[in-house]
Amino acid sequence: MIKKITLILFLFCLLIPVSFFAQDISLYTQINGRYDFTFVGNTLNTNENSFMSSPTILTSSSADLNLASTDVIERAYLYWAGCGTGDFNVQLNGIDITPDRTFSIIQASSGWPHFSAFKDITAQVQATGNGTYTLSDLDLTAEIPQYFQNRTNFGGWAIIVVYQNDALPLNQLNIYDGMQAVPDRIDISLNSLNVIDNFDAKIGFLAWEGDVGIANNESLTINGSVLSNPPLNPSNNAFNSTNSVTGSNSLFNMDLDIYTIQNNIQIGDTTADISLTSDQDYVMINAIVTKLNSQLPDATIVLNNYISECNTGYIELDYTVYNVNSTDFLPANTPITFYTQNTLLGTFYTQNDIPIGGNENNTIILNIPNAISSPFTLTAVVDDNGTRSGIVTELVETNNEFETVIELKLPPTFNYLEDLLSCNLGLTKGIFDFSNYEELVKNDQSHIVTFHESYNDAFLNNNEIFNTTNFEAITTPKEIFVRIENEFCYSLTSFNLRTRNCPPEVFNAVSANNDGLNDSFYIEGLRDIFVNFKLEIYNRWGKHIWTGDNSMPDWDGKVKKSVGPDDAPDGTYYYILYLNDPDYNEPLTGYLYLTR
């Protein structure tokens, strides 16, 4: 069974004219600014494998980096590759290196694998600078005899170095990588380009296993135009063991080639189509670097902080608009729109031109609709005019949004309080006990409750009412305001103190002797309460002897006659009290005892 599976796989490999298990070339990173790139690297082959008489390979090799004194290293990426499944423990200048990423590809005609590995070595190259770089411990000696059979034995390494120089124009560098190979044809689409000026545009290739002696229908094109750099890279044999940086033609079975593409791309292009054909030579593309003059801003936004004002429905929002990874200034009046739950909250604008690498901070007030529940997600979009459309052409059009969760300072919920009713003590004055309202109004025991006599006092938390058990309201109805606080906000409510005319209390003993005690007929809760009352006094034979109202003093035992009042004799008398109040339709009647 195992032999049958192996045979089927072998036949499958023979039937497929291209490599498989490859990783398509795609964008790895983009760098914008006054940047350019170069290659550093070397082969491990002692000769081109087509011309080797025996299977030999080195385990180390060296190359020199020679940048100008004004060049500043920004990025450095190491690639190493060879035949077999891979050696992923190497050294660069004596420092152990293990890959961040790996690639692999299987040659269709043989079914044999090749590999490549990647490591970000920026810090090491920045520390080392110019000088000799030696890659060592890349040991492929065990693999070479097998791969020598079809002359695909190779090994090598390369460093893509990105450097900055203030004298350079503003450029956009794109680094693409993966692992794709011919024969017969591969097509690679390079996206994320932004061509606004094709002056001095160039493209670089890191490729493995190309042969100077094999040029059978071999071509390299970009957007349909053949790339060549004769005599180093003829149009019919682009990948031929050459190094465009050093001018070497003995970089056996690897290529570090850079081409001018100024006439091969057009202003406005956002992609470039690379095509490589070969009917015989096995060539693997590992990395591609493009450099284009590109003067465009790149707007991004960050929401730094917000302040939620209690009971307002507004938030104060602090944000910063950046123009960092850019090659031109971001113009003033670039719109910034804020959304939540697809609801547009407002559009604002940058105030000034933001330079390359610069930013602008601003603070605004946003009104949050009542229908938006807290917490909610707030989305800020720079270069958005409120229609989800921008007005500024940018290097990157997909990094304009920033989201954060907003939690409003909501007021505490509470229970509504009923009005309090007390007896009218005269002229609507009343005494009230609302000490239990502190607990009744709260929905949370942690809330703090205070009482106030005016809305303004409650709003400002001034002049708190401390006597809630025996509170005297001089006039009623009187509104009492309640402030309920949580940890960051408050609510206000109120209730009314009202009085009612309670039944008066009759003191039916009169001792009219001017001793200051019970000298008149006193009825408590009558005067200034039942202001329209009428009181009639009758003797025991039913004779009407006195009438009084709220404007007259209490009866003092005198009988009014036509000439003048006389003292009424001691004895029992009867009264009829007409309260003239809608709550008391019937008069109050009773007796009193007069003595002197």
How does the SSE layout of this entry go?
Layout: H1 2-15, E1 23-33, E2 35-43, E3 61-65, E4 72-83, E5 90-92, E6 95-97, E7 101-106, E8 113-120, H2 122-128, E9 131-136, H3 144-148, E10 155-164, E11 171-190, E12 197-208, E13 219-222, E14 225-226, E15 254-260, E16 272-293, E17 300-308, E18 314-323, E19 335-340, E20 343-349, E21 358-367, E22 376-382, E23 401-406, E24 420-423, E25 430-432, H4 437-440, E26 448-452, H5 455-460, E27 471-473, E28 478-485, E29 490-500, E30 505-507, E31 509-511, E32 522-524, E33 534-538, E34 544-549, E35 558-559, E36 566-567, E37 571-578, E38 588-595
Parallel strand pairs: 24-29, 31-38
Antiparallel strand pairs: 1-11, 2-10, 3-9, 4-8, 4-10, 5-6, 5-9, 7-8, 11-16, 12-15, 12-16, 13-14, 13-16, 17-18, 18-21, 19-20, 19-22, 22-23, 25-27, 26-28, 28-29, 30-32, 33-34, 33-37, 35-36, 37-38
Q: What does it look like?
A:
A hairpin with a 2-residue loop joins strand 13 and strand 14. The protein has 596 residues and is mainly beta. The longest helix is centred in the first third of the chain and has 14 residues. Strands 1, 11, 12, 13, 14, 15 and 16 form a seven-stranded antiparallel beta sheet that branches. The protein has a five-stranded antiparallel beta sheet with strand order 2-10-4-8-7, with helices on one face. The protein is rod-shaped.
Task: Provide keyphrases for this structure.
6% helix; 7-stranded antiparallel β-sheet; mainly beta; 5 helices; 596 residues; single chain; 38 strands
